[in-house]
Amino acid sequence: xMKRIGEKARSAAAELALLxxxxxxNALLAMADSxxxxxxxxxxxxxxxxxxxxxxGLSKAMLDRLLLNDKRIEKxxxxxxxxxxxxxxxxxxxxxxxxxxxxxxxxxxxxxGVIGIIYESRPDVTADAGCLCIKSGNAVILRGGSEAIHSNxxxxxxxxxxxxxxxxxxxxxxxxPTTDRQAVDAMLKAREWIDLIIPxxxxxxxxxxxxxxxxxxxxxxxxxxxxxxxxxxxxxEAVGIIVNAKTQRPGVCNAxxxxxxxxxxxxxxxxxxAPRLLEKGVEIRGDETVCSVVPEAVxxxxxxxxxxxxxxxxxVKTAGSLEEATSFINKHGSHHTDAILTKDYNHAMTFLxxxxxxxxxxxxxxxxSDGGEFGMGCEIxxxxxxxxxxxPMGLRELTTSKFVVFGNGxxxx
Amino acid sequence: xMKRIGEKARSAAAELALLxxxxxxNALLAMADSxxxxxxxxxxxxxxxxxxxxxxGLSKAMLDRLLLNDKRIEKxxxxxxxxxxxxxxxxxxxxxxxxxxxxxxxxxxxxxGVIGIIYESRPDVTADAGCLCIKSGNAVILRGGSEAIHSNxxxxxxxxxxxxxxxxxxxxxxxxPTTDRQAVDAMLKAREWIDLIIPxxxxxxxxxxxxxxxxxxxxxxxxxxxxxxxxxxxxxEAVGIIVNAKTQRPGVCNAxxxxxxxxxxxxxxxxxxAPRLLEKGVEIRGDETVCSVVPEAVxxxxxxxxxxxxxxxxxVKTAGSLEEATSFINKHGSHHTDAILTKDYNHAMTFLxxxxxxxxxxxxxxxxSDGGEFGMGCEIxxxxxxxxxxxPMGLRELTTSKFVVFGNGxxxx
Lengths: 413, 413
Description:
By secondary structure, the first copy, chain A, is of the alpha/beta class.
C-alpha cells in the first residue's frame, strides 16, 4: 500500500512543483467553496467518528476536538482562503552573488517534494496541513488519528475533487486509508517516497515518530516560556506584559510559565505584580523570597521550573544576575520562547545572543511567538528543532532551495 | 565514554557560541602556525599510521590518502588561515519585518551546537572540518578512520593546545579516542549531545550512518552530472564547456558524466565535439545515433546513464526535446549538478525550474559547482539532501537561526 501511495505522491509532487500560482490558488479557493457546499456530508461523516468515539468512551475534551460543526467548517474554509492569498514561495531567486568571472550564483526556492504529516484527533489539521503543502508545491500524505478517519477521509476527498477541477494532479493530497498502526511504521520507513515527516500532537506521538523514522522529522515540543525581569525594566510596562503573557490565553504553548526577577528589585516589583496576577486568578508558586513577599504564594518545587502548566499557574523565582537568568533558562526552559524586560541595551543584546531558544524577545509578550503574529501568514507548527526550520514554520519552511547559476560560457581554469 | 565526550562538547558549545570573532580567528591562526612548527611530530605520528597501513596491506591509493608530507601540512595550515579570513556568520540579524504593532521581527544566525563528523582515511579532514565548526561557533566531535588514528589525534591535540592559549574552551575539538566500531554506533545514538552528523566518505559509509543515526544527518552522495545541449546552443561555446566539464579534473564529483544532445542538431554538433573529446583521450559511450556519427564511440548500456565514472569516459545520448531531457535527468541523474547550454530564454528558465538538483547551471561548466567557486569561501561538503542545506555547504550551513523580536511594550490583544 505504501508503495502505491508513495509512487502516486512522487508523481504528483513533480507536477505540483511546476504549477503556476494561479492554478494552486484557484484550487484552494475551490476547496474552500466545496467545504461550505458540502456541510451536511461533512457533518454526517464526522458524526460516524463521534458515534464511535462515544461508544469507545472518549473523554469530553477528545470528543470536542473531533467535532466538526458549522462554525468549524466555516473556519476551515476561511483558512484555505487565507493561504490562497499569501505570496507563492516557489521559484523565488535570492541571495545572488556576482563572481569575478561573471557567473551569477543565486538560490532558488523550490518545494521539498512529498511531506508526511502524522497527527492526532483534530480533523481540521487535514485541511490546514493539506493546503499549506499544496501552496508550497509539495504533495502530502496524511495520517490522522484513527478516531477521525471518516472526517479526514471526506475532507481529503472534497479537497481532491475540487482541486482536480482546477488542475491539481491526482495524488496531491492522500490519506492513509487504514487505521492500522503498522501503516505509521511503513510511512516512517518510506525514505524513497517521503522527504519530510511532521508530527503534530502530544509529546508521546512526537517522541515515537522521531525515534522510529528513517526520514527527517521536524519536531515541536512543548513551550515552558520564561520572562526575565531585569533591574532596569519599566515596572508598569513589565506588569502589563507579564499579565498578558500569562493570562491572555493560558492554554497555549507560547503562554508564560515561569518568571525570573532580578533580586534587587524583586520585593518592590512583586508588590506591584502580585495583586494584578491574583485578581486574574493566577496561582503563584514562588521561591523563598517570593513567598516572603507574597503571602498568597505557595512554595515552588524543583519541578516547577520545568513544567508547562497550560493553566493559570505561574512559577516565580529571583535571579542574582542576567547571567544567572540566561543559564537558568537554558537549563530549565524548553528552548521555545523566552523574553527579557529591560531598558539596558547591553542586557538586551546579551540576552538575545545567550538564550538558546527558537524565539527570543525583548520587551513584549511571549504570546507573539506565532507564525501569524510574526507576519508569516500562517504556520504548520512551531519547530523546537534546530535544523532546516526553527520557530514558527510557514510556507517558506515547507520549501528547500537549489543553487542556480547564470553563465555565459564560463569554463573552469 | 560518549557521555563524557558529549558533556564536554555541550559545555564547550555554550562558550563557543558567545566567543568574539577575534578570539576564534586568532585561535585558527595559532593552529595554522602550530602545524608548521610541529611538522616533525605530525610526520612521525603519521608514519605510525602508514607503517600499520603497509602491514595491513592497504592499497597504494589508500596509503597516499593517509600520507601527511610537508606540502600537505602547509596546505592544511593555509586552509586554516583562509577560514580565519572569512566573515563570521554568528550573530547576523537578517530578514527583518516590521509588524503593524511596531514589533521588529527578524532572524539571528547562531551555531547549531555540537556537530559530529564521521570520515574515512584523509587526516586533513580533521583540520578542515574542525576549523569550519569552530569558526561557525560549534563544538565538534570527530571520528576518523581507524587507519588514521595517530595522525588525527596529533592534529586535534595541536589544534586544541594552540586554541586554548587564545581562549577556546576545552572540548571544542574532540576526537573519539578509540578505533572501536561500537563508538560510531554510540555516537549515532547520542541525541542528547550531538545535534548534527555529517558523514564524509564513500557511499557505503554514508548509507550506514544515515540508516543507524537517531541524529539528523546531512548526506552527500555521488555526482552523476549531466549537460543538455539545446538546439539553440552556441556550438563553439558548448564544445568548450563540455570539454572543460569532462576533462579539467575528471576524478571529482562535479565533473561531467553524461551528455544529452537535442536530436535535430546531434549529428552536426557531434562532428564538432567528438574530435575534441577524443584528442583528450575521452572514451565516448553513445546511443545508436551517436555511434552512427562517431565511429570511435562504443555502444552505451542502460547502466551508463546512471554511472559516476570519475574517469575519462562520457556517456552521450540524444534527446527529442527539452522536456524529454529534464525528465531523463530527474530520473537517471544523481540530483547533484546539471547544466543546460542554450540561447533560448524560455528553455533556460524551464530547465532551472524543472531539474530537481542541488545545483542547476546555465551556459557554464559543471566544474563550478563548488563552495569556493560559488563564493562561499570554503565548504564542508556538497549536500545532496534537501533539508537544512542543499548543494555546497559553507559556514552559513553550519549555523541555524532563531527568531529575535525587538519590542517596546507590546502585548497581544
